[in-house]
Fold these 2 entries.
Entry 1:
Amino acid sequence: MRTPTRLASALAAASVTALALAGCASEAGPADAAAEPEEITLALVPSQDQDGLVETAAPITDYLTEELGMTVRGVVSKDYQAAVEAIGAGQAQIGFLPSLQLWQANDMYGAEVVLQTERNGNITYPAQFMTNDPDTYCDDEPVERDGMLFCNGADAMTGPAGLDSVEKVKGAKVAVLGPGSPAGYIYPMLALQEAGLDIDTDIEQVPVTANDASVLAVYNGDAEVGFSFWDARSIVTDVPDIGEKVVVFALTEEIPNDGVALSEELSPELRERITQALLDFAGTPEGQEALTSVYSITDLAPADPASLDVVARAADALGLQ
């Protein structure tokens, strides 16, 4: 087993129990390649509201169950790190994980990163800075794109953009996800740090558990600024004016997309079958609908594990590694 990062070590004790997975780990280790589990678990991370996420992902687990001839069930982890620790503890065998957690699952526990997601043909995305106070953070008049307002060039929809404005965040209440989130913490915090802010003392952090919660914290006035992936406003479907009241004023450097990691407990043959089943599923209308509903995924592609190193370096720059 690899040596865990400091971030993982600090969170492991709390996270490893977060999935509450009883009796679903395979008893076969990597050396027992001939044995296959009767049941495997797919760990989902709460990039949006956890309520109903397992049900939304049911078409994925149902398809895998039928294709693999074994029960596949989905479980939502407490946080991003919990999913990594569940794979390391044998409590989950498949993980739909953000980029940093893909890297950690491989580096710490030998999980194989097999797939990465595409969204409208893109394999990277920026984190976004959002505000309910465009008069303070926008150096120009906000412009509308598909019902959403942007300023400072963020309507280009690729990063970086508008980062000269992030120094204004000093003293603000900011909605942030946990430190394992590339878009909800790592990349925006690094941008603040590079703008000369002390991220521990120059902002008042308002913890949130998911990207849509960050959007809503800004919308409701609980925070003046929020971090999320681009464009998390689109997943808040029950608030018609979300794109008008929550304005994106900056985008970070591009982040590699999330993807799928498979536990080294699974035999190479089973890993190949799971990978192919997910690719086949993504190629069907039902699969595209399900993947879009779960994580706004429009396609799946073979992974480039080396592309994840940049996220690890960003985390390291914040002292999280």
Note: Residues 6-121+257-317 form a domain with the D-Maltodextrin-Binding Protein; domain 2 fold (CATH 3.40.190.10).
Entry 2:
Amino acid sequence: MPIDPDLAIGAELDEVPFAWTQSDVLLYHLALGAGGNPTDAKELRYTYERDLQVLPTFATVAVNLRTYEPPAVSFPGIEVDLAKVVHGTQAVTVHQPIPVEGKAVARTRIVDVLDKGKAAVIVKETTVHDSSDSPLWTERSSIFARGEGGFGGKRGESDKVELPDREPDVVIDTPTLPQQALLYRLCGDRNPLHADPEFARAAGFDVPILHGLCTYGVVAKAVTDALLDADTARVSSFSARFAGIVLPGETLRTRIWRDGTRLLVTTTAPDRDDAPVLSDAVLGTV
């Protein structure tokens, strides 16, 4: 079915009540690679319930933790084959520190549908409120649907982040695990692209690739640890564009520039000639 932007834009999806526990938070952090040094006090704040804190990027998995089927790209005016879809951008803004356990309601709407010619970009926004209707976080994401453009929609404007004309203030190398995609999929994203070699080849990849949102969380943690003393309460937001794939087991190289209360970030894969991974990334601080 061709995309119908008039039907899609502004469409509100069903409300989703959900809950999470300390164990869910611990699993998410472990799936990002937390606890590599299991006696380090800062790592234990991610992996041990005594002083547990929540990385704001947990917002990207909290709603779908109990999802056990591959996701479907099926919305009003939109039906897209999952094999054609890659994550485009992701942003999370937290309105207060995320509790280590709780209940909430997610409300999602289609914000925009852009026509990039050979592809369509579908932009969604989700707002999450706790049981007392207090706002917890706002999440905005876009997906890139290959072969679904050409429907006559608007192209959209560039949101490129300009980096300072100087060397980065900090450079961090972060290893990923060979089994990281298999761990991360337990947080609710069962897309076979990240586990099934045959599906990955059909989608145009030599091997299963790491979830973009896993990379997003790994980088957010690395920046928080390196520049914010591993204090997740100091993170107000994190946004990024997915510029390329990550193969499980690769090392990520993250370059960071201080810009007032913002940290400007790019991440590459040095094992593949510094191939871009995340671009236009900004971590907001408080």
Note: The two ends are 45 Å apart (CA to CA).
